[in-house]
Structures are given as C-alpha cells and as structure tokens.
Amino acid sequence: RSLAFPPKVPACRRPPPSMATEDLDIQAVIGFRGVVPNGLRLHPDGEHLVFPLGSCVVIRNILQRTQTFLQGHDNQISAITLSASGKYLASGQKTFMGFPADMIIWDFESRKATHRLRLHKVAVQCIAFSPSEQFMASLGGQDDNSIVIWEVESGTPICGTPAATEVAKSVTFFSKSDFHLASGGQYHVRLWNFDLPNKKLRPTGCNIGKLRRTTLSLLVHPEDTVLYCGTQSGDLLEVGLERGLFKKSGPPKEFFKRGITCSVMIPNGDIIIGTGDGTLAKLSSGTLRVRTQNQVLGEVTSISLTPDGSHFFCGTSKSNIYWVDCDSLMAELRTTCHSERINAITFPFGYSEVFATCSMTDIRVWNAKTRQELLRIQVPNLECHCVAFMRDGKSIVSGWSDGKIRGFLPQSGRLMYAIHDAHQNGATALACTSDCGRVVSGGMNGEVRVWKILRQTQTMEASLKEHRGRVWCLKIRENDQQAVSASSDGSVIVWDLNTFTRVSCLFDSTMFKALVYHPDESQILTTGSDRKLTWWDAFDGQPIRALEGSETGELTCLAITRSGSHFLTGGEDKLARLWDYDEGVCKHAGLGHSGGITACAIAPDQSFAVTCGQEGAIFMWKIPEKVQEAALDESGLH
C-alpha cells in the first residue's frame, strides 16, 4: 500500500477534545523514602530539607513547614545530592531491566529542571558534584557499573569508564580538587585522576593489604589527606590519598554490626558514623576509637550536618528523621511515616482534620494540616488489613491478619474490645452502620459477618457465606438496611441486613477490588483486576456501562465526592485519576507514587483527596475548585 496516503484514524477511535486531562496538584505529602543511601540532605542555607519520596523530590522548609515538589522522574528515585553551595540539586532513578535510567539536574532557586541526563542503564547508584560545581560524577547500578563525568553547565558527558570489575557502591570528589575522585565497592577502593584535556579517567587501585572489604560509604578529609571507607564488615578503613596506601582501621576492638552505611566529619575532626543496626557513633579522628554512641530505630542511611556542625539530621530505613546533637548524640524524633505498604485509609464522619491509615505493622492517625502523627497503634507481628471510624467517632475498628476484629479508643489507642476468631485467615474488609450498633466484616475466605457491638459484649448476628474468594470491599447504605460486598471471585452481592439474605448479585469476569454507592444510592460503581470501571443499577443489578479505567495496571481503590459528581481511582499504574461521574471521562491525573496505589479517600469537606501507596507514601492532592463546587452541590440528590 502506498505510504503517500496514510490511513485515516476512524472518528470513533479518535479521543474527543474533552479527553485532555489536567494535572492534579500535590498539596502535601507524608513520607520519606529512607532506604535511599544519603537520601536526606540539608541545604547549605540550613532551612530546607531535601529528600526523595516515590518518583518526586520533596523540598521541605523547616522553619515555615511548607513543602514544594520536583516532578520529572517516572520511577523510584535511587540517588540524590546537593552541590556545595546548594545552587544545584541532582537526582537519579531506577528503571526496568534494559532501559536507560534518567538523571535530572535541578536549579534549586527556581525549582526547575535544567538538564535531563541519560546514559546509565537500569539504575543510578550514586551522584557527586565537584567542589567548584563545574563537574558532576555519576555511578550506575550493578547492571551498569560505570562512572561518568558530566559538565554541569551544559549537561553533556565528558568521559566515562567502568568503575571496576566488581560492583561499585559509591563515588565522591576530593574536597578541594575537581580533578580527583575516589570510588569504592565490592573488594576494591580506587582513586581516579580526571584528565580533562584528553577526556580520560585514570584509576589507581588502593592497597589495603590482606583485607577483603565491601565499601559502602566514602568520606574525604577536608584537607584531602586521607580517605575514610565505611565497610560492610563494620570497620572504618583509613587510606592515604597521596599514594593510596592503607594506614589503619578502627574501632580497634569491636566492629559495628551490619556495616557502616554513612559517615560525616564534624569541625573538630571527629567522625560520626551510622550503621546498619541503627547505631550512631562518634569516633576520634586519630585513633578511630568510639567516644559516644546512641541507638535509633532502623538502619541509618543518611547523616546531614547543619552549616555550623553542631547538630545533624539522621534518616533511617524505617522512614524516621531524627534531629541529633553532635556532642551527646541525643536523638530527637522529628518526622515519622510508614515505611511499608499501606492497606487502607479512612476519615471520621464529616471531619477532615484527621485521618487514619493502616499498614503492614500498625495503625496511625494523622493531623491533615500539620501532617504530624497523632497516634500509633501496634499489634506485634500482625498486619492490619482494614480500618474504619465509628460514625460517632468514639472508636477505631480494625481487621487484622490473625482473624480478629479490634476496637481502639481514638485518642489513647487503648484496646476497647477484640472479637476473637471473627474470620479465618484474616479480616479484610469493614463497614460500620450509622447508628454505631453494628459492624459488617468480610474475611479472607469470603464470608461476610454481621456483629452487634455493645459496650461490654460483641456478638455475631449472622454469617453469610456465598463468596468463594477474599472480600475486598464492603459498603453499607445510609439507612442501614442493606450492605454490598465485592469479592475476588468475580461477584458483588447486595445483602439485606434485616433478614440476612441475598437481595441481588452482580457477576463479571474480574477480581473485584473496590466499589462505591452513588450518594443517591441508585447506582453502584465497581472496579477490579480487568482495569474496567463498571456502573451498575442498584435495583436490578444490571450493568449500565463499562469503561477502560487504566491502560496498564489493575485498579485497586475508589472514592466518590459528596454529590456524586466526580470520583477518584487509583491502581497499579501509580496514577491518581479524578473522573467525571456522568461523562465517564478522566478530567485530572496526578503522578507521584513510585509503587501501586492501594487506597484512596476524599476528605469530607471535598477540598483534598488522599492516596496511599505500596511504598508507604501518603499523597494529599488539591481538588480543583470547579470540582469542589460540583462536589458540594447536593441539590441533584433530593
């Protein structure tokens, strides 16, 4: 066929003009990806903390408690650094096997990306700026394992070379020279001479004798005399930079457990190190003996000194940020958040100031304005699958992986009651009636059970076993007469809560993951593993229409506005989408999560929406004003 006349796209396949989606703006985030090595950076101005969260970089003003976001990556950020003056910020990401991993150089003042650099494969392991900020060195991940020198101003690569035959872990410039670097990794430490006229990197291997060590962190003395290498074995090696000869190692007697992951030198010459078992220690510079040490929660991944060197911020793999005094190493917890998958999110009825999330390890209640954790409820070694506030706000009801339903007081977190053996293999879904007298729960094996909740006793009123798969979602009608359950066996069942019988059943060839009632309760909206959004008639259970909700991954959560004008979806494609209910068109989309979205909710005052992800991040999205007006207009419901 002649290519002179390309085939026309049929009109039915062309996206209509109204299909153009706008961006959802991030209002705030709760989270910190603590596993990124040296991911927490304090800007030289002493006012801004910079850290990665998912696929965006968060810049937090410590004094004013405001946040700004740098968005440009499409996957998890794996490396981040600031230049010496704080003018430039660089971030690198992970990607999929066989694809190039992007790095972005940002102008800190304008918060704009100046260059996008693409040479490394699969992942960027480490980034370092030269002292004069003229050059930047980057190290690829284990599938790439090469060092590349870039010119910062133009964003062009100057030269590159394999870092070593073994896997390299980190790279850094000397403190005073733009043309000397050091790199370390598995069984090697190397010094590099950067020959700019010939565009060459020339390595010199460091001789550390019979020691075989994997270097995790590098620290260059401010006078460029020695290099300190933190190793996976838990000792600190001191290497002379003039000839690359091993001098000594410390501490003399006992090594640190799980390796030395990061290190920094304070003005008096002492070295502060962080270790894999959560130890912070101060070593004397001459003898490398331990002066003081302290313990924090999680593996220490970042230490960032204040400009005067009196305090530092410490980031851990448990996503905690501590403020630590350099003299005593006393740690004060400043920020905390989930470090693992979040399973559910809920707001109290009609109140937008707080919300609760539950994850692999605990339930946390958050202040939506200050983004501070108000309460943490932990049950050791158990996963919380679902959480809900009672309508009167007097208790938090939750379902756990041991099959128990537990009720907690919302202010103290004290256990009010526990329903033992509520479900075999775990309670996975919950809904509370508006009179606060009953709780409907769903289990891992497909049973739906109704519980009468009194002050002293909790009794089962009915057990409804028709689902053959996990119950993912439960909703109760406003009049408490009916409940509807969605299951992974491909059925949605409407139950009568007076006679405890099935009213109607909706079938589809999908694993249903979420459902919502339209506020007038005439329709049910469902979604699941087939990536489709389906509108159902609540009276006779017939499908009204079905739309493709995502192009790549399954949809896992749904939330609808108060008037039913719009609804929010989230899923494995990491996008939060805001749809027009009547048109069935995605109006706004927001990208920020680096893992699949597992739960979403719209605040009762309709001003913002909250999404939670598999990586433990909580994103708060600003709902556009037009959508807010439509969401609060309830005239069409009566």
Pick out its properties.
638 residues, mainly beta, five-stranded mixed beta sheet, four-stranded antiparallel beta sheet, 1 helix, 53% strand, elongated, disordered N terminus
Question: What do these coordinates show?
Answer:
There is one protein chain. With 638 residues, the chain is an all-beta fold. The strands form 14 sheets. The chain has a 5-stranded mixed sheet with strand order 1-54-53-52-51. 48% of the residues are buried. Strand 25 and strand 26 form a beta hairpin. The chain is elongated, with a radius of gyration of 28 Å. The protein is built from 1 helix and 57 strands. It is 1% helix and 53% strand.
What is the strand arrangement across the widest sheet?
1-54-53-52-51
Broad structural category: mainly beta
What is the number of E strands? 57
Question: Could you tell me the strand content as a percent range?
Answer: over 45%
The Rg value, from CA coordinates, equals 28 Å
In percent, how helical is the residue content? under 10%
From the spread of the alpha carbons, the general shape counts as: elongated
Looking at how many chains there are and whether they match, the oligomeric state comes to single chain
Instruction: Summarize the biggest pleated sheet.
Output: 5 strands, mixed
Q: What is the overall number of helices?
A: 1
